[in-house]
Amino acid sequence: MTPVDNAEAKHVQALFNGQAATALALRESTAAQRADKLERLRDALFARRDELYSAFQQDLRKPAVEVELTELLPVVDDIRHALKHLKQWTRPQRVWPTLTTLGTKARVVYQPRGRCLIIGPWNYPLNTVLGPLVSAVAAGNAVILKPSEFTPQVNAVIAALIAQVFDPAEVALVAGAAATSQCLMALPFDHIFFTGSPTVGKLVMAAAAQHLTSVTLELGGKSPVIVDQTADLQTAAEHIVWAKFVNAGQTCVAPDHLYVHRQVQPRFIELCRELIAARFGRDAAAVAASPDLARMIHTRHAQRVGALIDDAAARGAQVLVGGQHDAATCYVAPTLLTDVPADARIASEEIFGPVLPIIAYDRLDEVLATINAGPKPLALYLWSNSADTQELVRTRTSSGGMGINLCLQQYAHNNLPFGGVNNSGIGNAHGVYGFKAFSHERAVLQGGPWSALKLLFPPYTPRTARLSRMLVDAVRRF
Predict the structure, then answer these.
(1) 252 given a catalytic annotation
(2) Rounded to whole angstroms, how far apart are CA atoms 40 and 26?
(3) How much is the pLDDT for 451?
(4) Residue 3 pLDDT
(5) Alpha carbon distance 338, 262 (integer Å)
(6) Which domains does the chain have, with CATH numbers?
(7) Max CA pair span of the chain
(8) Could you say which of 116, 218, 330, 350 is catalytic?
(9) I want to staple 302 with a disulfide (CB 3.0 to 4.6 A). Which of 37, 39, 296, 368 is the partner?
(10) What b/e readout covers 158-176, taking b as 16+ CB neighbours within 10 angstroms?
């Protein structure tokens, strides 16, 4: 455990205490009031667009196009979707009485959970912090945000933005490293939303258990891709190369490794080679100088991904494209590998970088057996034009989400739940699913002037026994 600075602990405690009264008051906030805050958040985001370009360039050397598409667009669309549906989401939902509750009125009321903690990762530092915040504000909560310490420039812009839009008694941002996170997680929040690795997710869950705090865990894992012999290879290659190398592969739902039917593997590899050359450069120097390729977040991560490549090559894997890496500049070239042995580290560790192992297969059932033998991934992708194969893979595997003839786009669909299963996460986000994650679905049952239940009150007579028996038999029939 990293020691916690006393001044930092007092600051965190003061922020948490300061949000107590606000959290209670926000239970009475209206959909219109929440919508106004979301609109102001959206406007402040657009006002700092150029600042964000510069900040992302400094922290990740992320191209402006990727800032727009992978950071701004998801958050802006989250806000648009929430504004469109917020009145509907916040409205109490009437439900019909059951046979055993005739004479009552029932509804589900969505209450804010209260004081919430959002812990974000470094790979998409705007998207993964402000996206959950949109859901939390839409649900009427007070929030403390804890972004990753590895993106200080982006964090500075977000902090200024949050201070502009919100009173710290409602939403506040806390900077700091692991010790700050430990300090925050020791507090009795009403909900914690964490995005990051399964390893840290277990620590978050253990800390939350001390206060029986509910959690949403958006984690990761080794998301596989299957390309069968019926796939449109050109389209598959175009999408997979994009999905793997956007943000230099540092994406929780990025393709981790690829199973390609042996019959089409040579052609698929040829297409991938050409796409990498066309998009990033036709020699190693050109690729390294490409403005369209982001960098690893820090030297330690670059060393780790580079070591995965070197270990695989030393054990007999073939490097088809790339393989170059330079930790000092946080650079790893877009890399394709084949013939990766089972004992290579890259075969078992989540890559989280621009390296794609391509594995030839002959029988689909063997691929599915391998996938099912490992932890359930956050995403699974299938490229196939066979309806039978699509249904087979869907029913015989488990993953947080599944993409058929596409990659990554499931993340952007606000009418779908986004989340993992077991090792890849707990709970869902986005749209109404994010709203519900930050809400307590409270059951409200109201009695009327007449109730048949009193016919069953003691003292128990032969008549009471007959009525109770009739009731149970009626329930059985209906």
Answers:
(1) yes
(2) 17
(3) 79
(4) 58
(5) 12
(6) 6-219+428-440 (3.40.605.10), 224-412 (3.40.309.10)
(7) 92
(8) 218
(9) 296
(10) bbebbeebbebbbbbbbbb
- For 252, counting Cβ atoms within 10 Å of its Cβ (0-12 exposed, 13-18 middle, 19+ buried), the class is buried
pLDDT in tens, 197-249: 999 999 999 999 999 999 999 999 999 999 999 999 999 999 999 999 999 99
- The amino acid present at 373, given as its one-letter code, is A
Q: What is the pLDDT of residues 238-292, one digit of tens each?
A: 999 999 999 999 999 999 999 999 999 999 999 999 999 999 999 999 999 999 9
Instruction: List C-alpha distances in Å: 252 to 124, 196, 218, 385.
Output: 10, 8, 9, 26
35-71 per-position pLDDT tens digit: 999 999 999 999 999 999 999 999 999 999 999 999 9
Amino acid letter at 390? Q
Q: How many Å apart are CA 420 and CA 195, to the nearest integer?
A: 11
Catalytic residue among 116, 183, 252, 272: 252
Encoded tokens for 317: 């894997």
